[in-house]
Amino acid sequence: MIELYEFQRAMRNMRKAAMQRGVVAVLDVGSSKIACLVLRFDGSDRLAEVEGIGPMAGQSGFRVIGAATTRSRGVKFGEIDAMQETERAIRTALQAAQKMANIRVDHVIACFSGAEPRSYGLAGQIDLEGHIVTEQEVARALSACDVPDFGMGREVLHAQPVNFALDNRSGLSDPRGQMGQQLATDMHMLTVDETAVQNLAQCVKRCDLELAGIASSAYVAGLSAMVEDEQELGAACIDMGGGSTSLSIFMKKHMIYADAVRMGGDHVTSDISMGLQVPAATAERIKTFYGGVHATGMDDREMIELEGDTGDWEHDRRTVSRAELIGIMRPRVEEILEEVRVRLDAAGFEYLPSQQIVLTGGGSQIPGLDGLASKILGQQVRLGRPMRVHGLPQAATGPSFASAVGMCLFATHPQDEWWDFDLPVERYPARSLRRAVKWFKENW
User: Fold this and answer.
1) DSSP secondary structure, 8-77, as one string
2) CA separation (Å) from 349 to 44, 75, 100?
3) What is the DSSP string of 153-216?
4) Total number of domains in the chain
5) What is the pLDDT of residues 79-93, one digit of tens each?
6) Does the predicted model carry a pTM greater than 0.85?
């Protein structure tokens, strides 16, 4: 536990060093693409650390000066599967982004999906005896949280205080400077598979870069694709990637739950590839140009040519109707959304005052997906694109860049995490368990 805490603190210090130097790269390591953005901080705001617990900052103090993507290699279900392949892909994306920015980058902040995320809601409480709340009291309250035994081989990726209560006043975002008898806090903790984090750290190291932070792509996609009201009143962000579909729930501008489904757009592509007996590249092209989830009478008549290169003329000159294509795609898309629904139900999403769902990620671009999603998930669903970052190249403004753009916000204005406070060493949290997010029923 202590090693892990120190690892995260070291990355936080690395981030400060990068901000002082004025440049940092963000890296979205996905199953279908690797995206890299280079940020430059302007001097005025470079050291202006945001005070307070978790303010959602808008654009401030940085510009995107380089951007590049490359086809991902060696990543499956959002996790690194073949180290050398992934290292080559990261180097390719990074070099192209550095070339565009015309600057060398040493520090990188990375995000990834998958890795079997698990959410925990923790609570801690301390007596103040009428003292003013200072940084030390906040640290003591956080260290009083009962951290579950989350098992071997797991690592804490995020541990954020999401609510403070002073005596009978709950819902405080920052209690510092106020007086009271008792201080209580709720913390959301997200753990992931340790090897996924270690592999990513190792891969970044092999590219001769310093890792200045890691984040869950479910979290950063929510940061960039949701509007302020959705983050405040309660909403879920569903980020459909190539190899996995991440979901996060926000409330009071904090992530309070995250999970992932090990299926995404690539699974739809492989279904098309097998169903129509075409190569994966052809299946991807057909999906992008003709895909959909609702068939109408017109689609029986719209024919798609399958250009093959097997040398068998009959086989290479086949056509299929768009209705057939939709018939292959829809069951898999429904399966992904059903899995998402199971996870939203487990999180107690129906107890939130507002139940907006934002669909983003490359896989969300299938025509008609929002309608199908609102049928299956039973809520208002809208398609989300990344917001709050100006000056992005046109290519980086689509839904498939939600995580990468969210990383810019995470890099420049990180929310307070457990390791930003000096915890009393003898009180490293350990002990009992209160699983998942049913806790916000009582706490909000």
Assistant:
1) HHHHHHHHHHHHHHTEEEEEEE-SSEEEEEEEEE-GGGTT-PPPSS-----S-SEEEEEEEEEE--SEET
2) 41, 30, 43
3) TEEEEEEEEEEEEETTEEEES--TT-B-SEEEEEEEEEEEEHHHHHHHHHHHHHTT-EEEEEEE
4) 1
5) 777 888 888 888 898
6) no
Residue 199: phi and psi, rounded to 5, are: -65, -40
- Write the DSSP string, 88-109: HHHHHHHHHHHHHHTS---EEE
Which domain CATH number covers 147?
A: 3.30.1490
Model confidence pLDDT, tens digit, residues 312-343: 666 667 888 888 888 999 999 999 999 999 99
**Is residue 18, in this structure, part of any structural domain at all?**
no
Rounded to a whole number, what is the distance in angstroms from the first to the last CA of the chain? 29
The beta-strand segments (E) located in 243-366 are 245-251, 254-261, 303-307, 317-321, 356-360
Q: Is residue 428 part of a domain?
A: yes
In-domain check, residue 176: yes
Report whether pLDDT(143) > 60. yes
3 state SS of 121 = strand
pLDDT higher than 50, residue 51: no
Read off the pLDDT of residues 209-257 as tens digits, 9 standing for 90 and up: 888 888 888 899 998 899 888 888 889 999 998 888 999 999 888 888 9
- The residue with greater pLDDT, 392 or 190, is 190
Beta strand residue intervals within 224-302, DSSP E: 235-240, 245-251, 254-261
Q: What is the pLDDT of residue 429?
A: 43
Which residues, other chains included, contact 252 with Cβ-Cβ below 8 Å and sequence gap of 6+? Answer: 162, 163, 171, 173, 232, 444
> Containing domain of residue 172, as a range?
118-190+421-443
Which pLDDT belongs to residue 199? 85
Cα distance between residue 90 and residue 26, in whole Å: 11
Rounded to whole angstroms, the Cα distance separating 276 from 287 reads: 12
Q: What are residue 37's DSSP bridge partners?
A: 26, 67
Q: Answer yes or no: is 199 within a domain.
A: no
The most confident of 43-57, 306-320, 341-355, by mean pLDDT: 341-355
**Given this model, what pLDDT does residue 333 score?**
93
CA dist., res. 89 & res. 83, Å (int): 10
